[in-house]
């Protein structure tokens, strides 16, 4: 869906906007005059405003921000007590409290556990008897699973924990077999305050790190960026200075590799997972990593590996959980857009796909179908009930499926209008399932339907109310899965803006929608001015005129100043924390486009402490709702905001991307990162969501996404249509790529089953399969499907060739061209030029593989009835192996399965 922050791209690219903000920060006065406020408002929180202009909250931008390493004393370890699996100790503040960004915790408990042969746990929490920690939130296991001790040790672990008190407490984790130090806080101080935690680790020169949440970035993170982990309603930002975490994935593990280059290059992988749901800021710098959070505990898990596969599997088995097994039909092609206005348009899309011979599995609806944008309703004027039932019956009879969007906030009716009834809200309020203000009144924000309330997943009845709402709604509209959106959780206003104001419930969002005056989408992909010069010139002129009108209305940029709230020992300021992470929203205000941090849950927990978990919890509730509707069948959910463990219930899509070549490229590292996180069902809005695509970009992108697990085309309201059949060349390219995809569906389904049962990955980086090749550490323009299929897409406008490597070539690995079956002649490390005219995506098969294939069809239902085949690609030794998993394609517990191992 369209986001408020996305509208800024009409005038500036997000990269350009970030550069402007950075420059303003540099030019700001060294001692800005800012009014100090520390009190919390009872009903709402608003953006900090000063008379001299725009205020910034993020201290990373603040030239006068205090480096806590200087004034803070650190801790000293004492009272060490060893046990079977490790030891416990007390950490006492080593000097006078600094109280820089909160209240220093005087006494901490340290627990060190060797939980398994490959897993070490380091946990630092406030001492229970310390009165200063009364407001500290420690993440409970019922919200996010806690890895546990497998059995009483001692373990012969490849991880070793060392610590010391010189000059203050530090610890280090090393690999026993190689002596490599993987993590060390030596040379820095531990800072542990009620609203600010900081710990640092030195890292090797030119280190390789991957992961740390969802962001538009290359797979390898590099050593000069700041990663922010905070659920935010924003379009997909690319920021060259500070790589901020976009709205969706809130996952905190990172995966590192180290190398031994004494004689021959070899590498080993390890993982580090911080189990903390608070807002986080992770600074990667040449010397190492700094972790900052605005609350919680230091709950670290170290995974020894030593391979990427072993780290990923261990992380999933112990922490994230094994990913959900998807129904077979979900691997077909999905079509959606914001702007399908009625059942007739949806049926036309289905008919046109069949007319042009393009497989279509599922038709999706964005918010167009809702009555006044209200969840669990259908607009029976635009989408009449009888016509809908007839259409969906025909759709299901053809073996196809239907998935609607469901947003995350619930409309609250106007009490002065007796006809403004909404049972979903009424039943929820009766059961007390919505978040409140600190004074106990309903917290009322604003989303698409107007004033809204927000489900409280910590309430006693919240999940069951959601389950019942889904089950009741399915009786009206027989959907097959659910698409969860806006789950950061998003709000268009700041604070409880609807409190005492319901009579003026807005009927339109507080911003113009795409296609309305002033917000016509004129953006086209890079290179459009070369391929379509006349159209590009016209669009550019119209865009410039529109931008000028908006710029004139907006006025001149404000001067940046910094708001620095005072620290009151023992009092938390959750609305304006003393240290605010480098949040993507304007001013870095945590309440902007979100539920305010002081919103309150049924158990007294404040949103400040659990904000990043809303998207995770709504996926859990939706999973149980679909399980109620379809007993015994696997629920199909695609969600926006995620956390560690969300893959147990749902897949994920990459959010509101743009119709740009850049975003097509970044879709690959996005997908690979989610493979690491245990969410293998991943895809992006193919051809781009925001702006207008063009024939060439959509041609290339439809072919690329055919090799992702989740394959969907989706675009924004008022942009040009981008269904594959709009252009003849795109239709042909799509048919060709889908022909391969459908042949490979048994292989892809088998990979998903292996991920579901063992924690393996489906989409894979080249470096994971060939870890001892140093040239592959940053390779993310090619990828593997499982171990056997390599895809080398064209990602540059106007190109008819693509450069690619063939890992292992010359060292015992053979690669075969999918189309010709001919072995590729390549040398070790050779970067080859591959012919790839428009409409062709290079695909290669790894020698030593046996692939189960099935003849394609227009739906997976028909394809599963088609003949089978076996493709054997012999290795250098003349041998090949492969696997096939078969079940009924839908049951949680199939009554019959088949596992076939084929060898040549």
From TrEMBL:
UniProt keyword annotation of Transmembrane present: no
Entry EC number(s): 3.2.1.20
Domain Glycoside hydrolase family 31 TIM barrel: residue ranges: 323-751
Catalyzed reactions per annotation: Hydrolysis of terminal, non-reducing (1->4)-linked alpha-D-glucose residues with release of alpha-D-glucose
Residues covered by region (Disordered): 30-52, 531-556
Residue stretches making up the Glycosyl hydrolase family 31 C-terminal domain: 759-851
Pfam families in the record: Glyco_hydro_31_2nd, Glyco_hydro_31_3rd
SUPFAM superfamilies (UniProt xref): (Trans)glycosidases, Galactose mutarotase-like, Glycosyl hydrolase domain
Signal peptide as annotated in the record: 1-22
GO terms of biological process kind: carbohydrate metabolic process
Biased composition (Low complexity): 536-556
Alphabetized UniProt keyword annotations: Glycoprotein, Glycosidase, Hydrolase, Signal
Name under which the protein is recorded: alpha-glucosidase
Top EC class of this enzyme: hydrolase
Gene3D superfamilies documented for this protein: Glycosidases, glycosyl hydrolase (family 31), Golgi alpha-mannosidase II
């Amino acid at each position: 869906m369209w986001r408020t922050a996305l509208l800024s791209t009409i005038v500036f690219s997000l990269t350009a906007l970030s550069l402007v903000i950075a420059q303003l920060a540099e030019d700001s006065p060294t001692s800005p005059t800012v009014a100090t406020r520390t009190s919390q408002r009872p009903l709402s929180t608003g953006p900090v405003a000063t008379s001299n202009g725009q205020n910034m909250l993020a201290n990373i931008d603040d030239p006068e921000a205090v480096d806590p390493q200087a004034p803070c004393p650190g801790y000293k370890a004492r009272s060490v007590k060893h046990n079977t699996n490790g030891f416990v100790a007390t950490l006492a503040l080593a000097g006078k409290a600094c109280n820089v960004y909160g209240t220093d915790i005087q006494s901490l408990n340290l627990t060190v556990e060797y939980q398994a042969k490959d897993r070490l746990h380091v946990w630092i929490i406030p001492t229970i008897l310390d009165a200063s920690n009364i407001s500290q939130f420690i993440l409970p296991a019922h919200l996010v699973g806690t890895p546990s001790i497998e059995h009483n040790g001692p373990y012969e672990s490849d991880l070793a924990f060392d610590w010391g008190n010189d000059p203050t407490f530090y610890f280090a984790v090393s690999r026993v077999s190689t002596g490599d130090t993987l993590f060390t806080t030596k040379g820095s101080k531990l800072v542990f305050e009620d609203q600010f935690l900081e710990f640092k680790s030195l890292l090797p020169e030119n280190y390789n790190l991957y992961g740390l949440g969802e962001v538009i970035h290359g797979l390898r993170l590099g050593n000069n960026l700041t990663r922010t982990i905070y659920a935010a309603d924003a379009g997909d930002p690319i920021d060259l200075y500070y790589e901020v975490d976009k709205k969706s994935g809130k996952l905190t593990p990172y995966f590192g590799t180290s190398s031994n280059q004494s004689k021959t290059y070899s590498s080993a992988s390890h993982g580090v997972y911080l189990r903390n749901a608070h807002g986080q800021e992770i600074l990667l710098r040449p010397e190492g990593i700094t972790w900052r959070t605005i609350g919680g505990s230091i709950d670290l898990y170290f995974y020894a590996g030593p391979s990427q596969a072993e780290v990923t599997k261990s992380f999933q088995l112990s922490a994230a959980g094994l990913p959900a097994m998807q129904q077979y039909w979900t691997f077909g092609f999905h079509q959606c857009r914001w702007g399908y206005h009625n059942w007739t348009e949806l049926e036309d899309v289905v008919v046109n796909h069949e007319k042009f011979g393009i497989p279509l599995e599922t038709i999706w609806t964005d918010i167009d179908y809702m009555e006044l944008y209200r969840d669990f309703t259908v607009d029976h004027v635009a989408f009449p009930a009888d016509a809908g039932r007839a259409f969906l019956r025909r759709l299901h009879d053809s073996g196809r499926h239907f998935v609607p969007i469901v947003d995350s906030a619930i409309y609250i009716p106007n009490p002065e209008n007796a006809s403004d009834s909404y049972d979903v809200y009424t039943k929820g309020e009766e059961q007390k399932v919505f978040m409140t203000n600190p004074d106990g009144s309903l917290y009322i924000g604003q989303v698409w339907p107007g004033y809204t309330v927000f489900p409280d997943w910590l309430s006693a009845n919240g999940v069951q109310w959601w389950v019942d709402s889904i089950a009741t709604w399915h009786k009206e509209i027989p959907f097959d899965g659910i698409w969860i959106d806006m789950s950061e959780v998003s709000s268009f206003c700041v604070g409880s803006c609807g409190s005492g104001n319901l009579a003026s419930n807005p009927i339109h969002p507080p911003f113009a929608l795409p296609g309305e005056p002033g917000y016509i989408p004129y953006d086209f992909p890079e290179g459009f001015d070369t391929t379509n010069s006349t159209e590009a010139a016209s669009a550019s002129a119209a865009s410039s005129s529109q931008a000028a009108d908006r710029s004139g209305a907006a006025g001149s940029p404000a001067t940046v100043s910094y708001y620095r709230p005072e620290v009151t020992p023992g009092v938390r300021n959750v609305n304006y924390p003393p240290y605010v992470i480098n949040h993507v929203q304007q001013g870095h205000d945590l309440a902007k486009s979100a539920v305010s941090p002081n919103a309150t849950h049924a158990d007294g927990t404040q949103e400040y402490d659990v904000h990043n978990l809303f998207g995770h919890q709504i996926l859990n509730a939706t999973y149980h709702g679909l399980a109620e509707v379809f007993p015994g069948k696997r629920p199909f959910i695609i969600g926006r905001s995620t956390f560690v463990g969300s893959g147990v219930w749902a897949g994920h899509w990459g959010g509101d991307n743009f119709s740009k070549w850049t975003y097509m490229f970044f879709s690959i590292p996005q997908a690979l990162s989610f493979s690491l996180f245990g969410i293998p069902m991943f895809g992006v809005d193919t051809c781009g969501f925001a702006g207008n695509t063009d024939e060439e970009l959509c041609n290339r992108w439809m072919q690329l996404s055919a090799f992702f697990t989740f394959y969907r085309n989706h675009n924004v309201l008022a942009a040009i249509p981008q269904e594959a059949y709009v252009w003849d060349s795109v239709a042909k390219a799509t048919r060709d790529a889908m022909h391969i995809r459908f042949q490979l569906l048994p292989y892809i389904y088998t990979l998903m089953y292996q991920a579901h049962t063992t924690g393996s990955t489906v989409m894979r980086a080249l470096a994971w399969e060939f870890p001892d090749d140093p040239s592959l550490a940053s390779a993310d323009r090619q990828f593997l499907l499982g171990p056997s299929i390599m895809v080398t897409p064209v990602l540059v406008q106007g190109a008819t060739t693509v450069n690619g490597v063939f890992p292992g070539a010359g060292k015992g690995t053979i690669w075969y061209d999918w189309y010709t079956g001919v072995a590729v002649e390549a040398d070790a490390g050779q970067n080859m030029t591959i012919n790839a005219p428009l409409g062709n995506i290079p695909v290669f098969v790894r020698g030593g593989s046996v692939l189960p294939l099935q003849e394609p069809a227009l739906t997976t239902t028909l394809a599963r009835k088609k003949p089978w085949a076996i493709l054997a690609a012999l290795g250098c030794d003349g041998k090949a192996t492969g696997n096939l998993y078969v079940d009924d394609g839908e049951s949680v517990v199939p009554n019959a399965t088949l596992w076939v191992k084929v060898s040549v």
